[in-house]
Each structure stands twice: as structure tokens, then as C-alpha cells.
Write a structure and sequence with these properties.
Blueprint (H helix, E strand, L loop, with lengths): L9 H9 L3 E2 L15 E4 L6 E8 L4 E8 L5 E6 L8 E7 L5 E8 L5 E3 L6 E7 L4 E8 L15 E7 L12 E6 L17 E6 L3 E2 L5 E9 L7 E9 L8 E8 L10 E3 L12 E7 L5 E2 L4 E5 L7 E9 L8 E2 L2 E7 L5 E2 L1 E7 L6 E2 L6 E8 L3 H5 L6 E9 L4 E10 L2 E9 L10 E9 L4 E8 L8 E2 L10 E7 L4 E8 L1 H7 L7 H7 L7 H13 L2 E7 L4 E6 L12 E2 L16 E2 L11 E2 L11
Parallel strand pairs: 21-25, 26-36, 39-40
Antiparallel strand pairs: 1-41, 2-3, 3-4, 4-10, 5-6, 5-11, 6-7, 7-8, 9-10, 11-12, 13-24, 14-23, 15-18, 15-22, 16-20, 16-21, 16-24, 17-19, 17-22, 26-35, 27-34, 28-33, 29-32, 29-35, 30-31, 30-33, 36-37, 37-38
Helix pairs in contact: 3-4, 3-5
Length: 609
Amino acid sequence: MLQTPGAMTCALLFRLLLLTALVVPSPGKGLGPTSRLRYSRFLDPSNVIFLRWDFDLEAEIITFELQVRTAGWVGLGVTNRNARTGSDLVVGGVLPDGNVYFSDQHLVDEDTLEEDGSQDAELQGLTEDAVYTTMRFSRPFRSCDPHDQDITSDTMRVLATYGLDDTLKLDRDRTFVKSIFLLQIVHPDDLDIPEDTIIHDLEITDFLIPEDDTTYACTFLPLPIVSKKHHIFKFEPKMVEHDETMVHHILVYACGNASVLPTGISDCYGADPAFSLCSQVIVGWAVGGTSYQFPDDVGVSLGTPLDPQWIRLEIHYSNFHNLPGVYDSSGIRLYYTAQLRKYDMGVLQLGFFTFPIHFIPPGAESFLSYGLCKTEKFEEMNGAPVPDIQVYGYLLHTHLAGRALQAVQYRNGTQLQTICKDDSYDFNLQETRDLPYRVEIKPGDELLVECHYQTLDRDSLTFGGPSTINEMCLIFLFYYPRNNISSCMGYPDIIHVAHELGEEVSDSMEGMMAMNNIEWTPENIKKAEKACKGAQQMVIIKTIDEVVENTTGWIPEIIPTTRGPCLESSGGKVEPQDKTPAGFRAAPVGLSSSSTATLRSSRSQMPGI
């Protein structure tokens, strides 16, 4: 049992009991105390803890509503990957006499809660009925209190906990952490569902999953036959329950109409190279993801002479327990319509060319890998002028050692912007995400993917490859209008890397073999990272018709994105040591304590629950 200290002094308890709940005006775009919150999720396996949330990107305010099946206190906050120490936790509850208590706190160690000097959470509602305790509050994305974790567009590890009574004690059995992408830009309810929607399933039927750790199963399937142009506007995974822990990812690749395709099911990257044909991803799902609906102005085109008629369905199975006799019928469900969107979309695969050059040293606290894309050959390879690419979404992908990814855009040697990034990547939450704005890529731009790995738990080299214990470094950009380029990826000159590490080699294979000769001290790990970054990159560009062109380039520097100013607290004093070089920005009207109303203490449920 985790204990909060007797550190909860009488004075603090007295202050909590006397706290008057405040109702604040909307922090922008109508997020008031009774506004509908668009996003929701259970945070525990038993579905005891239910979270609703919404946010205002302009005001940089997020609103949470935590509903827990308990008559005790509840808590919600943000933690990090490695330890709960330093976690940001907002706690509250309703006492038997109807008075409420509410406080912005943090964990000073695994067992101890302490109240923040700056109170940055604004209470909007706190009620208890015969079943639930419900707490609703708002907070800034970034406060000036160092005890508050920032809310960002990264994967957030949401911490939820509760008690059976009003004694603030942390209990491991009632404390849960769930990875969530909180700042989702588009909610499915905001998008149109055409009345003429047709469903089509692409699936492998009754496939006996091998007892191997890793299997890549591929088959070729026809797309729907339609008499006129249609658009695919949504996809979702189609799995039975036992598959959810064994299916690592599912990809659908468009095939060129001139391709000669094999029949049956086989290893995607095995003895028959025909089963690796078709390389332009059109939709994809990975572990932790859910359904995805395209924005209302884009879709995957079906039914024209330029559209693919066949696809390659690739399913990656991870059977780590080597279970025998497991049959699978997984796949992807497509939703399509004759109500056409404005643009035909495409997917561009970026990153580090997976095999055979990619390696990551063991015992690395941090190791960065880079994959360069140069778009100067796109028009020549496309066979027609390439309009500016408008990127609206993305999917990030590494395996278990991945910690962060980003894609950065350059033009004429100058960094323009970070297209997408996640500094808190979670292998178990891989989903297609929308950008807050469209990113324009012009012919000639360079695109750089950086992947951050950690291998402290490994004592041997990790190589790029298909297995979950191998690694990948990929970012899929969802864009319009569609062109014929399927992928653009890079890898470093491994001969140069080997020479920098003191190994004499004459070809790439010897270069990779030489990595096994290195004593991977922290100094040599950093030396290898620097050598990989400084080596000339080989860039491989591929089209939907399997046409391949190579070029070369050099890794540019990445200028870090500076954080904006923090939000000055309106609920407590900001101590001098809490101030940051970025400075303060004024609290928006919605967080001003000058406009308040008393919330009636009540044991009735909140409206809309």
C-alpha cells in the first residue's frame, strides 16, 4: 500500500475542506462546466475509471472530466515513461457532509503526495452520487509551475487513481497509467458519414499462425469493382479477440496494374520475392490504433484507370509465446462511397531504409538514427508534373527500442518546420494522427526523419529488420493530391561508419559485420552516432510500379523547436524559482479568478453524465 505522508498537515486539510468550488467561463470555443467533451476513454481494465476530455488549441487549455465508481477521492494527472516520481496529479472528492476538496499536487517519490505551491487546475464541477464521484477541471497546456507536466502533441501517459474513502492514500491496485494521444485534432463525430456507404473487407481467412516469434504473412486481394469512381473514406482493423495481442500491424499496399502477382499466402520477405511486390501503402494499422476516418475533402480513389485494382495485404504476427494451433482471420475493413471528395490522397513512406544497414548499439541511453528523403527526382519518376504535396496526417512506427521520432522539412538548405513528432513515443499506441494544419511540400524539398532509441536493457546489437526485436524507423505521411511515389528513404555509408570506428572494411557487408567487433562503451556509442550522422546518405526512391532510383545527400542539422511561454497561474502564487527563460503569458479570460460563481455542494450527478 502506498501512503501519502502525515505530510498532509492539519492546516492543509483545513484549507481543502474550506475550498469553494469555482465555475469558470469557457476557456475559448465554449468549453464551459456543462459543455460536451468530445473525447472519452476508460483508463483501467475493469472499466471503473472513465475519462472525458476536450481542449482549445488557441487558448492552450484542456478540460478533463473524471468519473470513477467510488464514494472516495479521485485523482488525475500526467506521468512519464520511467517512474511515477514527479507525476502531476489533481485530486478531489466530496465529504459526507457535502463539502468538496480539490488540490493540484505532485508525487515527490513513489509514495508521497505534496501540494503544488502554484495551483494551476481550475475546478468546474465535483459531485458524488450513489455510484460515481465525478471531477471536472481545466488546466493550461503549459503552466509556469515546474511540478506540472506539459500537455503536448506527444503521446501522454495519463495517470488515474482513486480511494475507497476520503483519505488521500495511493494504492497500487487502484492506480493506472494509460498512453493517450490527448490533442487529437479531428473527432469522427465531426466528419460526414455518407448514406450510400459500402463496406468491403480485406482479410486473411483461417490462417494458421506459425509458432515462430515473428511472421509476416502476405496475400494479394482485389479491391471492389465499381462502375464509376468511388472514394474510400474510412478504415478500421478487423480482428477477433485472441488476435489483438498477436497482430502487430496490418498494411495495405497498392499494386501497379502492370504487376504479375502470385496467389496464396506466403512469407512477405521470404524465399519468393514476388510476395514483397507492391510498395505503396494506402492504409495501415498498428498495435494500439483504432479506426481512422479521412478528412471530408480527401479519400482513396477507386474505379478509374489510374487506380489500383489489386492490393497486397501484409499482417505482422508476434507469437512470442510460440502458441500452437492458433488460426487467424484478421484484416482491414474499408468504407467507401460514390459521394466524391475533392482530393485523391496518397501515402509517402519516409525513414531509415530498414535492411541491411540499420544498427543500434546495446546499452545506449540514447542513440539517434536518420533517414533522408530528397524529392528532386519525384517529378522525373512520377512521369508527370508533381503538384505541391499537402500533408494532413501521419503514422509513426518503430519497434520496442523506439523512444521518439520526428520528420523535419528543409528548403534550399534551410530548415522550414517540424512536420510531425512525438518525444514520448509508445510502441503500444500507434495510430494515424491528424496535423493541426496542412503542411506543403514542394519538389526539391528535403525531408529528414530522426528516430531516438534506448537499449539499456540489451547486451547485443539491434539490427533493422521485420521482427519486433529488430528495429524500424518509419513515418508515413498522408497527403493529397496523389502521385506515383511510394517511398523515399535513406541510410548512411556504412563503410565510412566502420572506418570512423577504427575498422578496416572494403564493402557494406564487411562494414555491418565489423559492428560486432566494437566494444560498445558510452564513448563508442556516441562516436558511432556521430559517424552515422556525418556519413553520406544513400537515398532510395520507389514508385508504385516498383521503379527505383538512387541519389545521395547529407544529414542537415535539426534546430530544436522552442517552447512557447508558460501560462501564469491564476490559482496560486508562482514562486521566483518557478519562472522560466521563456517568460510568462497572461492567463486568458476563461481562467481569470475575477469572474466566479459558487458551485452548490451536491451528491447528485453532473449534467450530461
